[in-house]
């Protein structure tokens, strides 16, 4: 769940709670019954928000794990490529050194 989706979800839940609360307050019920309805709505909203937070946390965790795995794969590929390039450089330097040794041997004759 993206951050924007989480914000929209939180705004919708907050709006629903506020709307339910206003609706209950304007309903022609006795005080005790109204308080009971408000409490029930608040508990339901709390449960809904808790579920949304758990879902968002799980999604974030999955996303973080996927990004970590992707990073590790790219790092491994990069290190592997660097290793091959280092080997190529070493081979080229060894060849150059051998050429220089041969030239030096010819010059000393």
Automatic annotation (TrEMBL):
UniProt keyword annotation of Amino-acid biosynthesis present: no
Highest taxon of the lineage: Bacteria
InterPro entries in UniProt: Desiccation-related_membrane (IPR052928), YtxH (IPR024623)
Residue spans crossing the bilayer: 6-27
Keyword tags: Membrane, Transmembrane, Transmembrane helix
Xref: PANTHER family: GENERAL STRESS PROTEIN (PTHR35792)
Protein name, entry field: YtxH domain-containing protein
Native source species: Flagellimonas yonaguniensis
Source organism phylogeny: Bacteria, Pseudomonadati, Bacteroidota, Flavobacteriia, Flavobacteriales
